[in-house]
Amino acid sequence: MKKINLxxxxxxxxxxxxxxxxxxxxDSIPIPFTMLNGDxxxxxHGRHRGPAxxxxxxxxxxxxxxxxxxFESEELINGLSVxxxxxxxxxxxxxxxxxxxxxxxxxxxxxxxxxxxxxIIYMNGRTYIGEFEPGGI
Length: 137
What we know:
Blueprint: H1 2-20, E1 28-30, E2 34-36, E3 59-63, E4 68-72, E5 77-86, E6 91-99, E7 105-108, E8 117-123, E9 126-132
Antiparallel strand pairs: 1-3, 2-9, 3-4, 4-7, 5-6, 5-8, 8-9
């Protein structure tokens, strides 16, 4: 009987992880984003083009244990422009990503020094900024 109860508990635990997302573990922190009125880091034309204007911003988590940024979305997002920027404004990482529905897309940030970093997403003709701190937790 104890084995059955243990299996039920384990099943319930995994069900919670899958229903709320694997990235939402105890070591994962959701990154809130703020929409900026203008680009703080622009390309030579001062603008960034994103996917279709109706798509919602992906959810991004910083995993403090594995040191990854996890991106998830309920919709397919093609051509998502993402930058990781340090406190002084230096672009550390720049990627054009595709986010598949119900599949985590990651950026490895384990090589970053301790400190404050910004994640900048250019999407829907807008600029969104969030922050995270490797080693600061």
